[in-house]
Amino acid sequence: MVRRKAGDNGVRKQSKDLEDAAKGLNPRQRQFANGVLEGMSQTQAYLAAYPNSSARTAETSSSRMMSSAKVARYLEIANAQVCERAKVSRQWALEQLKEIAQEPSSNTAGKVAAIALISKMEGWDKPAKVEVSVNPLEQLVYEIQNEE
User: Fold this and answer.
1) Backbone dihedral region of 86: left (phi > 0), alpha (psi from -120 to 50 degrees) or beta?
2) Per the confidence metrics, is the pTM higher than 0.70?
């Protein structure tokens, strides 16, 4: 029996849609869009795709490129695909942990660990206390300034 991941058809359809959207872009537009997807600023992505451009040209042209329907569509589909994959991965992990927690042959430590991870992933844990250390000199300056 073949087990399919939840949402698998959605990911495949989005992959096809992304391929179709990419075909509508020239190589430099695709490089620009991929740069934006990788976290570059629009200007940085433009300069990576068009290295002979000036910074000033990159600022204005990158904005224009972002408003291009073809580039916007490619970015929209790519972002949706990333979100869907993250959702499927999280959902899969929760299903696997649930199976471990419910499996009669699992040892007690494994069940407890699975339940703890499920709790953490679902946000059921109380907020964790975070210790912040302060430079003693900065603390002294702060105290002096706030003595009034």
Assistant:
1) alpha
2) no
